[in-house]
């Protein structure tokens, strides 16, 4: 998928979304760093998450942005009245700019639960899906973000898992183990190795 990303900061992005009428949260590597209160590495882009049903309302709060739908490695103008097929994300840039400013990823859900968009058998109560960091940043729950990093992890994903796994609450680690066993069983051994490292 063609595209280049501008180095948008969390503070700048939060300002653009100050009038958003629906919940949203930082996602990706930035979500983990904001949750932990550190900048652990360089980030090549920045993204937020929102519930799939809230996409039109979120986009309506960003009238000065060009919005493209990213599906099957193709970008096309987003049609808010055309329900997207999951998985789904939006790329946004300010009108007239050549670099993309940020991405919005749509999270699957029903009235009570967030669902993993790669395997909707994996669920978490909606009130636990988006959390607030100690510094007041809205972030997707770190166990959810780490789950996304367990499919064919890149070097930076493996590094993030090693860095943030010990920081999770025991209940979050337990949920993530169960989620990985169901959706990405090939990553079980990686989490078991992290547990062994913590035990020493």
TrEMBL record:
Pfam families: Aminoglyc_resit
Top-rank lineage group of the source organism: Bacteria
Protein's recorded name: Amino acid transporter
Taxonomic source organism: Devosia oryziradicis
Lineage: Bacteria, Pseudomonadati, Pseudomonadota, Alphaproteobacteria, Hyphomicrobiales
């Amino acid at each position: 998928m063609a595209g280049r990303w501008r180095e948008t900061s969390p503070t700048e992005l939060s300002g653009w979304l100050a009038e958003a009428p629906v919940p949203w949260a930082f996602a990706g590597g930035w979500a983990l760093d904001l949750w932990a209160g550190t900048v652990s590495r360089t980030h090549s882009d920045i993204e937020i998450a929102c519930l799939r049903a809230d996409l039109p309302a979120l986009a309506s709060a960003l009238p000065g942005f060009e919005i493209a739908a990213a599906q099957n490695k193709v970008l096309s103008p987003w049609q808010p009245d055309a329900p997207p097929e999951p998985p789904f994300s939006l790329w946004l840039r300010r009108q007239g700019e050549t670099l993309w400013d940020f991405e919005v990823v749509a999270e699957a859900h029903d009235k009570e639960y967030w669902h993993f968009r790669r395997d909707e058998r994996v669920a978490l109560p909606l009130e636990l899906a988006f959390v607030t960091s100690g510094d007041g940043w809205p972030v997707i729950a770190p166990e959810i973000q780490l789950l996304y990093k367990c499919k064919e992890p890149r070097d930076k994903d493996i590094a993030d898992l090693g860095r943030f796994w010990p920081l999770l609450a025991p209940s979050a680690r337990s949920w993530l183990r169960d989620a990985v066993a169901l959706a990405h069983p090939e990553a079980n051994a990686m989490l078991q190795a992290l547990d062994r490292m913590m035990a020493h």
